[in-house]
Amino acid sequence: MKSMAQLLHEHPFFTGMDAEYLDFIAGCGENHIYNAGDYIARENAPADHFFLIRDGKVAVECYVPNYGSLCVQTLHSGDIFGWSWLFPPHLWTFDAHALDEVHAIRLDGKCLREKCETDPKFGFELMKRFAQIVTERLRATRIQLMDVYSHRRPPLEGGQ
């Protein structure tokens, strides 16, 4: 059986991170399995964790008035979910639910915040990794929006 530090080391989010840091945060993590349909996060609920997806698919959704839930992204093995634990008021800004059986490492946000405060060098390393993920997700959202709004309306008959 692999240790939590070994499992963290295998996840792409932690590629290249010093082994001492992985040992440092291993105590914040636990393996967790979500069944298809289980909610991992609910919008406006306390954001106490972040998740390293080891296997399975997770739908990230937002509620749109007069429409319902809208899937904004589907995450897969090797992805992470959640950075709301980082920023006050520590509330989820999206819903997330398992599309199939999801195996994840659930990392305790309070534990990680305390470790970031205790070791600012570690905190900076972790923040750089989250900043990269946020940048990638914003870029993907921008491309989605450009695709949605790129479809021009056909010209009106008679040039009007």
Description of the molecule:
The protein is of the alpha+beta class and 160 residues long. Helix content is 34%, strand content 28%. It has helices at 4-10, 19-26, 109-118, 120-149; strands at residues 29-34, 39-41, 49-55, 58-64, 68-75, 80-81, 95-98, 102-108. It is globular and about 50 Å long. The termini are far apart.
Characterize this entry briefly.
The chain has 160 residues and is of the alpha+beta class. It is built from 4 helices and 8 strands; from the N terminus they run ααββββββββαα.
Structure summary, number of beta strands: 8
Question: What order do the SSEs take from the amino end to the carboxyl end, as H and E?
Answer: HHEEEEEEEEHH
- Strand-pairing-aware structural class: alpha+beta
Tally the helices: what do you get? 4
Strand order of the largest sheet: 1-8-3-6
Percent range of helical residues: 25-40%
What overall form do the CA principal axes indicate?
globular
Low-confidence stretches: none
Distance between the termini: 70 Å
The main sheet comes to: 4 strands, antiparallel
Task: Please supply descriptive tags for the structure shown above.
single chain, 160 residues, alpha+beta
